[in-house]
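Can't attach files on this board, so I'm pasting raw text. These are the components:
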Amino acid sequence: MATTTATVSISSRDLQPGNTLSINASSTLMKSGLTTGLELMEMGNHSIATGTEFNLSSALGEVNGSHYVYICNTTSNDEYYLEWGLHDTMIGNLNSGQWMFIPWNNAVTTDSEIEIEAKNGTCTFEYAIFKTAWTLPTAAS
Amino acid sequence: MATINASISISSNIMNYPTSINKSMTMKKLTSCHGIDETTGLRTKKFGEVTTAAVIVEHDELTDDKAHMVYVRNTTSAKDGFFYIAYNASAAGPTTTEVIGKLYGGDWMLFPYNGNVNITAASDGRAERVLEYMVFADGIVATKG
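---
Top answer:
Structure tokens for the assembled complex are below.
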């Protein structure tokens, strides 16, 4: 059985005066709440022009499943950022040099793909998706 | 200006060769080199038989269209219990497109958030469990915070 572990550390000495912030958490990623580790993954590195939308992952996986997504905007220009969302609903803005990590349940087939759009300039990003199960397309889309 | 650092480490042996992702960042305001310097604080919320769903981040407390960061963790050790985390006005269930994902016991997430719609949590209702969360804010609406 494969083992995938994700660990985060968040710290700040001056966000809350007199109270040093230190958050540390680690989790072993499992298939849909069971005791079996994830067995599929994909990784990539892309560059997209400003205003261009990119479907990071089509919704061909287990619906309402247990998947995890890591994205890092590797662009160095502070003005350039990535807008991310699910289907047509944009959720947040990922600044240059910043990363994100989320569980993704692929809630509704064809309506819950992860979308990324570059803003203010061409952005490069790297990503990794860890999956419970997946179906490859049978023809070019 | 505050400095908030966050690092991630992912290790996996799914593939034949080991995968190791290690990345650090300083949380910044949108399109700026200046760091995020506000927070709504670290909070916990207990979910059980009485409360199974709640808004954990109210968007009207935060400035719209910014680069807030949201941290959420299911503190329960048992893997079989989970929360649906959604970007929606009210808590959402499994077949709603606004659900981001299921946060199982011990799982965490850290994601950028534009502050335009609430972030909600809905437990599976099977057992008492605690959610831990914190917003690193790129602007708080003073009259709401």
